[in-house]
C-alpha cells in the first residue's frame, strides 16, 4: 500500500496543481461562449474531484479493512489487545485528515459551481478555498502517508506473531499448507 499510496498522492497533488493553474488561466479570460479555458477548467475540475475523492476513499477503505483484520487476528490467536488499540489509533489519526480533505474538496467544488452559475462575486471565495484545499490536501497526504507507514509496520509485526504462533501450534507443515491454500494450490 505504501508504494501505491505514493503514486496516488503524487497523482492527486498533480491534479490539484494543474487544476489550480487552469483556474487562474480561466479567471483571466472574458466570459462568453468562446471561454475555452473556463470549459477546460470545469471539465478538469470534475475529473480532479472524482480522482481525489477516489484516492481518499481508497485510504479510508484500507484503514477500515486492516483494523478489522487486526481485530480478527488478535481474537483468533489470543494476541495482546494493544495491537487493536494501536491500529485504531492509526485509523483515527488518519480519518480526520481524510474526511477534512473530502469536505474541503466538496466546498471548493461547490463554490466553483456558485461562481459559474451565480456570478463573479463567488470567484474570490472559490479561489481562496481552492488554495486552502490544495494546501490541506498536501498536509493530508503527508499525514496519511505517515499513518500508512506506521500501520504497515504494525500489521507486519502482527502477522509475524500470528505466523510464529501458527508454526508453534501446527508445525512447519501446517504453515506451508496454509500458504499453499491461500495461494490456491491444492494440498498433495
How would you explain this protein's 3D organization?
This is DUF4405 domain-containing protein. The chain crosses the membrane at residues 39-63, 97-115, 127-156. Helix 1 packs antiparallel against helix 4, helix 2 (36-77) packs antiparallel against helix 3 (82-117) and helix 2 packs parallel to helix 4 (123-182). This protein has helices spanning 2-27, 36-77, 82-117, 123-182. The chain has one domain. It has 188 residues and is mainly alpha-helical. The radius of gyration is 23 Å and the shape is elongated. Helices cover 87% and strands 0% of the residues. The model has no long low-confidence stretch (mean pLDDT 89). It has four helices and no strands.
Amino acid at each position: 500500500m505504501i508504494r501505491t499510496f505514493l503514486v496516488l498522492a503524487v497523482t492527486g497533488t498533480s491534479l490539484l496543481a494543474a487544476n489550480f493553474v487552469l483556474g487562474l488561466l480561466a479567471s483571466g479570460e472574458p466570459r462568453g461562449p468562446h471561454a475555452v479555458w473556463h470549459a477546460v477548467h470545469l471539465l478538469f475540475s470534475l475529473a480532479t474531484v472524482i480522482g481525489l475523492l477516489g484516492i481518499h476513499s481508497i485510504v479510508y477503505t484500507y484503514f477500515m479493512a486492516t483494523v478489522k483484520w487486526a481485530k480478527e487476528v488478535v481474537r483468533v490467536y489470543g494476541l495482546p489487545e494493544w495491537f487493536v488499540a494501536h491500529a485504531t489509533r492509526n485509523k483515527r489519526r488518519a480519518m480526520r485528515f481524510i474526511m477534512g480533505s473530502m469536505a474541503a474538496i466538496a466546498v471548493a467544488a461547490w463554490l466553483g459551481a456558485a461562481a459559474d452559475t451565480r456570478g463573479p462575486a463567488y470567484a474570490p471565495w472559490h479561489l481562496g478555498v481552492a488554495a486552502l484545499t490544495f494546501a490541506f490536501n498536501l498536509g493530508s497526504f503527508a499525514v496519511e502517508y505517515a499513518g500508512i507507514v506506521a500501520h504497515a509496520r504494525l500489521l507486519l509485526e502482527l502477522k509475524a506473531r500470528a505466523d510464529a504462533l501458527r508454526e508453534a501450534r501446527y508445525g512447519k507443515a501446517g504453515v506451508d499448507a496454509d500458504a499453499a491454500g491461500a495461494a490456491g494450490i491444492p494440498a498433495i
